Amino acid sequence: MPEGDPSSSAAEAAPHPRHVIIAGAGIGGLSAALFLAKAGWQVTVAEKVEALQEFGAGLQIAPNASRLLADVGILDDLRDFSVEPLALIVRKGDSGQELSRATLGEQAEARFGAPFIVVHRADLQNALRKRVEATPGITLRLGLQLTEALEREDAVTAVFQHGDTEERIRADLLVGADGVWSKVRQLSGLPGPSRYSGNTAWRALIPREQAPIFAREPKVNLWFGNGVHLVHYPICGGEEINLVAVIEDTWQEEGWSCDGDPDVLIQKFAPWCAKARELVAAAPEWKRWALVHRAPESRWSRARMTLLGDAAHPMMPFLAQGASAAIEDGAALATLLTPPCPRPEQLALALKRYDAARIPRTARIQEEARKQGRFYHFSGLFGRLRDTALKVLPGEAMLNRYAWIFEHDARKDTL
Ligand SMILES: Cc1cc2nc3c(=O)[nH]c(=O)nc-3n(C[C@H](O)[C@H](O)[C@H](O)COP(=O)(O)OP(=O)(O)OC[C@H]3O[C@@H](n4cnc5c(N)ncnc54)[C@H](O)[C@@H]3O)c2cc1C
Predict the structure, then answer these.
(1) Where does the pLDDT of residue 377 fall: very low under 50, low under 70, confident under 90, or very high at 90 and above?
(2) What is the pTM of this model?
(3) Phi, psi at residue 220, to the nearest 5°?
(4) Ligand 1 atom 35, closest CA
(5) What domains sit in the chain, N to C, each tagged with a CATH number?
């Protein structure tokens, strides 16, 4: 047992649950650690990689998550790194014609009670990590890969591979925040791996001075094409432009940083308008990842194990809710696990309530995200109908349609 680990004798002797191990230090795991520590839990976050890398690109953080990040100081910490977009603009890829524009910025912040922000995943992860490291009661351990979990009535023991050695940590609860290929999910006896969706996301970062002027504005831009769409917005305080192209194809490979051949994209966007082509050509390099999803389940939790984030509900990125929903999960779990020393039967009840509150909500977001993807990629008659509807409807209709997502306060998920 490592020195100073909260799972050592004091926690083992404790008659009631109070030490939680979180497997995975992604956005979901680190934010859950902050919420659970605030709720009075001792937290060990165990992450398999030796160093949290600067992988990834842009994430949209909607008001349903930013209101929760504000609670633990992260919104303030991100002030210099994030961008608060002023509008969401939808365009046709071939002509460049603007189809719709919804106002974001202060107006949306006033309406939903918290801001929409866009941020580099690494900036958000760094801000969370710094807070985690500065919070008494949280221990962050890198290089620990969860391989096994032994659940007993009074405790759960998580088994980790740490280099050549095995390490065991005992706790009252194990939370799997270990992403789409979750080990905790597998150990919980839940259905097997996520499924590839037939869509690949290509992403690039363009330094501000190399990006076309229109792409530097603080706006989220969405372009529709046939079987493809493009999203871009500035991040890193405006210093980088995040560009994501989602393409229907059958490529399947696990990982977040596979190289993408720029010529494939240049060809794909050849029928698009000059502005869009200029933007795609400005990307210095492309990374791609195959998008995965899974059908919702009826349970995530067992007596002393549960899931959150992508481990629980991988979703298509078309509503940009993957990170926000993971943050919501942690906040809801912490609310339900307050106070931190419930008796074992109270822990079981809290986890049941967590499943009952979170599964229907995230299932609805997963389903809406899938539908949204089809809507984005329509062609022919359906494409023309979509474009006409967008032109006729006020831009705010886009926000109204998803107000149920943005207005939600997961701290009240206490069914
Ligand atoms: C490297 C990376 C880059 C990403 N880039 C983007 C991006 O550019 N845009 C975007 O929209 N989304 C991106 N995502 C996804 C996005 O961050 C998630 O969908 C969302 O934030 C939900 O996060 P999560 O914490 O549930 O899962 P994840 O962010 O996937 O985090 C899971 C963590 O668990 C760790 N882990 C896995 N297995 C084990 C194990 N057995 N033991 C211990 N730890 C384990 C992983 O190393 C990882 O750190 C990226 C994810 C990763 C991991």
Answers:
(1) confident
(2) 0.93
(3) -95, 125
(4) 24
(5) 9-194+294-412 (3.50.50.60)
